[in-house]
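thought: user wants a sequence for this fold. calling inverse folding tool.
action: design(structure=
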């Protein structure tokens, strides 16, 4: 017996009620989210089909003709069985055939039936060709539009999206998932439409022929539909798992082939093959689980169809014996019954295809629904060519809600034409600062201004045209050297390309190549040395002619001679521009007009090289550590050389 007081019972109930309500609330939220996702997917499909409305009308008309010919196909056989071979006469609506002398005797009726069969087949064949051609065309163009829409949207997303995205998953979506949608639109969509229309027409004709027979077929339909819908949900779940596993295979391949030099250098081919083996086995097991579920559907539907057909065959034979039904009528009815259940079986078997397409559309919608886009305000302005003044006002930024703030309160000013170095310990936010200037990210607090104009109110294209980059590793794209230099300025002339290459000290090696500026670079420029890639990167920045330059330690990975040539090119590039240089080697910014020192997300020091060393603060400590380390390294290198020199 409970010993709780009424007040305690009330308090207990108050605590228990919310706990009991949670599963129901979670279910409602999940249902609402699913319904919202379905609406978005429906809108996506409709928007993709909208440009092809005229083609859809053609497909619809051809499909109706195809269905009508399918409905007419069994009737010539009935004429032969009942009118040519039996004692029945042609129906009244075919009296015109008697007048033409084609159906007055057995062979005449058979000839008419044969001609009718051919005419029906020809008309149906033409309709099938038309709807197949236009449906395939719609599928191809829808896939083209969808592929371009995804790719364009991916390029509009901010870098914040890519910080958490997997390249393999994105590649899988833009290839495999779009192909799934294309295949469905090209083939399955037409099949489903034909099947649905056929079921409706067939049901009407079957009721007209013999309504009590038809009740047998109709009676099992609810059970079949319920089974198919429950089956579809199970298939959708396993299909989603298969697509995830397939995306992981793409990710493993993309990472392994993209890092093949490092893999070979460390001799870890076996490890990468093991990664691929694990991903492939997981995908295979998921696919087999999916096939296990999919294989169950067809036999179940076939058994139900056979049961209905057997009952109709037994009942129809009894009616023929009783003289209330003709053999031709039973033949037509059995043909219709088979045609009635064929679309049902097709729709059931398409449940897996529909599930695959649904999952593909969900994955596509997930990308298209990503809202991490750097947006322009409606009244964004084009400020023209910038003078180059940059100001940060109490800027804060973090890479995610759960991540600590990389920048907490950063404020500084860079005057037009100044060369400014940005230094600091690892993780202090140097790269983040320069990523905020072209709005690769937006700050969570504070403002970034160029020439006194808040960059959030400037057109993105205009803003980014003001800023040039020379990164630590220049990325080269597929194409010729000339095309890679002109990447910084679409439509650049050959004279401009050559002039930019000369300023960057790149013309020296380009002109010695077999095809000169038309020489093709390997993937990511691997056929060129690091110094050559950097000089092409500088030429790309020169031809862009931006008033603001961001240099991210462009000489860090170069040998002495390559560094000398690159520095000469950079010296030409920096003239008359505002330059922000991220420095790890402090010697590269020794002569900078100003050095900004970051630590713990704030600016801790500003000044020239000599002034900061004299302060004895963070910069002085970085300087001491770096030069002491360099001294030790030089001594170590000298010792190695001494021991390696033969006596």
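)
observation: tool returned 647 residues.
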């Amino acid at each position: 017996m409970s010993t709780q007081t009424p007040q305690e019972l009330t308090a207990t109930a108050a605590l228990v009620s919310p706990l009991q309500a949670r599963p129901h609330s979670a279910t409602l939220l999940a249902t609402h989210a699913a319904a919202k996702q379905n609406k978005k997917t429906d809108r996506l499909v409709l928007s993709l089909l909208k440009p092809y409305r005229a083609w859809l009308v053609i497909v619809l008309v051809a499909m109706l003709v195809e269905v009508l010919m399918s409905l007419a196909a069994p009737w010539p056989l009935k004429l032969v069985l009942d009118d040519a071979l039996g004692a029945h006469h042609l129906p009244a609506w075919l009296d015109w055939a008697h007048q033409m002398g084609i159906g007055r005797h057995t062979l005449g009726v058979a000839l008419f039936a044969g001609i009718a069969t051919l005419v029906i087949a020809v008309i149906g064949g033409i309709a099938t060709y038309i709807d197949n051609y236009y449906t395939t065309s719609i599928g191809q163009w829808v896939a083209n539009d969808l592929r371009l829409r995804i790719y364009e949207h991916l390029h509009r997303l901010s870098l914040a999206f890519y910080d958490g995205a997997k390249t393999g998953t994105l590649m899988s979506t833009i290839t495999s998932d779009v192909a799934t949608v294309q295949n469905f639109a090209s083939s399955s969509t037409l099949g489903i439409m034909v099947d649905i229309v056929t079921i409706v027409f067939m049901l009407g004709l079957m009721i007209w022929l013999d309504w009590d027979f038809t009740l047998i077929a109709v009676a099992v339909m609810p059970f079949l539909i319920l089974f198919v819908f429950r089956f579809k949900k199970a298939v959708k779940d396993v299909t989603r798992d298969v697509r995830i596993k397939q995306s992981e295979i793409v990710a493993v391949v993309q990472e392994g082939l993209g890092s093949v030099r490092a893999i070979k250098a460390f001799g870890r081919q076996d490890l990468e093959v093991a990664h691929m083996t694990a991903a492939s086995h997981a995908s295979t097991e998921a696919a087999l689980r999916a096939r296990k579920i999919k294989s169950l559907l067809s036999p179940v539907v076939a058994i139900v169809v056979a049961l209905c057909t057997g009952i109709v065959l037994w009942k129809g034979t009894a009616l023929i014996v009783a003289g209330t039904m003709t053999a031709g009528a039973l033949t037509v009815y059995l043909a219709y019954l088979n045609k009635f259940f064929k679309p049902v079986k097709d729709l059931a078997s398409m449940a897996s295809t529909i599930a695959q397409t649904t999952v593909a559309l969900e994955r596509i919608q997930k990308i298209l629904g990503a809202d991490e886009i750097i947006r322009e305000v409606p009244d964004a302005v084009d400020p023209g060519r910038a003078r180059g003044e940059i100001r940060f006002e109490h800027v804060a930024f973090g890479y995610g809600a759960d991540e600590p703030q990389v920048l907490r309160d950063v404020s500084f000013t860079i005057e037009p034409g100044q060369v400014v170095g940005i230094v600091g310990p690892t993780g202090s936010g140097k790269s983040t600062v320069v990523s905020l200037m072209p709005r690769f990210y937006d700050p969570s607090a504070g403002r970034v201004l160029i020439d006194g104009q808040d960059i959030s109110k400037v057109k993105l294209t205009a803003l980014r045209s003001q800023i040039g980059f020379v990164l630590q590793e220049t990325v080269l794209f597929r194409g010729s050297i000339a095309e890679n230099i002109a990447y910084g300025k679409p439509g650049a002339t050959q004279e401009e390309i050559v002039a930019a290459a000369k300023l960057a000290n790149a013309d020296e090696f380009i002109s010695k190549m077999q095809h000169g500026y038309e020489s093709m670079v390997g993937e990511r420029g691997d056929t060129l040395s690091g110094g050559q890639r950097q000089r092409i990167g500088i030429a790309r920045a020169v031809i862009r002619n931006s008033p603001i330059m961001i240099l991210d330690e462009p000489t860090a990975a170069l040998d002495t001679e390559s560094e000398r040539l690159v520095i000469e090119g950079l010296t030409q590039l920096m003239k008359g521009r505002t330059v922000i240089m991220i420095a790890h080697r402090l010697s590269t910014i020794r002569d900078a007009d100003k050095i900004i020192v970051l630590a713990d997300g704030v600016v801790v020091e500003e000044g020239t090289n000599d002034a900061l060393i004299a302060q004895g603060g963070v910069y002085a400590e970085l300087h001491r550590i770096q030069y002491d380390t360099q001294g030790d390294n030089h001594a170590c290198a000298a010792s190695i050389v001494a021991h390696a020199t033969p006596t």
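thought: summarizing for user.
answer: Here is the designed sequence. The first helix runs from residue 6 to 49.
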